[in-house]
Amino acid sequence: MSDLSKRLAKDMKDENFRKLWEDMEPEFQIIEMIINTRHEKGLTQKQLADLAGIEQASLSRIETGKVSPDLATIKKIAGAMGKKLELSFTASKR
Fold this sequence. Notes:
Layout: H1 3-11, H2 15-40, H3 45-52, H4 56-63, H5 71-80
Helix pairs in contact: 3-4, 3-5
């Protein structure tokens, strides 16, 4: 188990932290998918940004969670990596 996983497991015991984490989970999933797919494709942020038609600084802010991209931007990023954006609703945990 990584240090991050250990820390997250510890922090998730705090009800307030867990609620905040769950509220932000979709954003975290998008960030993780972008970063992981970019790495799998062997792309730098600059290369992906150029392919997607966005600024590298914008991609950096998305990957660090400083901004939440709109769906059009997510579609551009996904398409630039040869992926298609798919959305679904699932039952709430609450």
